[in-house]
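Example record

Each entry pairs one chain with its bound ligand, 4-ethoxy-4-oxobutanoic acid.
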Amino acid sequence: MTNRVPRAFPILFLALFIVGCASSSRFSTSQAPVTIASLSTDGPYAIRAYSSFPDAAEFGDATIYYPLDTGRPVGGVAVAPGFTERQRHINWWGPRLASHGFAVIVLDTNTPRDMPDLRGDALIAAVRTLKAENSRRGSPLNGRIDVNKMAIMGHSMGGGGTLIAANNHSDEIQAAIPFTPWQPEGDFSSITVPTLVIAGSADRIAAVDEYAWPHYQTIPHSTTRVYMEINGGDHFLANSNGPDLAVIGRYGIAWLKLYLDGDERYRRFIYGDAQKVDAGKFSRYIANP
Ligand code: 9J3
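Structure tokens for the complex follow.
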């Protein structure tokens, strides 16, 4: 007995050392200093993409982008394009968000002319697809998704769909980011999840005073919501060819880090000093709270 304990010690220390090294390398990746620069470009994780997974009736083709070696389950994000658009119009979000530690499904609608309500159905179905990937044997994401951290995003009619889906399914998601959204007479008074509306003051297709701004105003005061309007931004400011994706991406990443992951280090990029530096970029930045 007395000499068995000392003999176990070296093995115990070796095991602790190995575990310590492994977790400290993870720690240094996920806890690296977060800066305006680090959020303005791709993040620390290597990424992969795949497109073979079970079909859903509510959308067409889709691609899932995901990070390698996160050492923890990741949140999921579904992204929908706008009227007549396809994945490629908005798929820059896939690698950008995946490299910061999210599993991202970018979808094609069943037909390019689907109206916003169908895009909302597509987004919720895509969220369910991501959740199912977590438990599908053989999926690269098997056991790697935190199914309680889900967000939806979309452009224009896909942004309308984002708002419709958030309004009807706030119980299935944790955050929403409509960009240059379009939904005539939209009433989103049942949204309870944190919602970031990204808009452009020079949008000639979905003019902010008819769409994004009134859409935002229908979201309840009791819901965490931000209205971010890029001064001079057009309808395509958050699409793959947008002129300032460094900034747009930074706000999207910070929103998801804060409200999916609950990581408070990102709050200052939405509400604090690291947001104030951008004041000159916005015609309106209404943060409530
Ligand atoms: O998805 C969009 O770009 C909607 C823009 C629009 O005004 O469509 C009208 C048919």
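The pocket of 4-ethoxy-4-oxobutanoic acid is lined by residues 82-83, 156-157, 182, 205-206 (CB under 6 Å).
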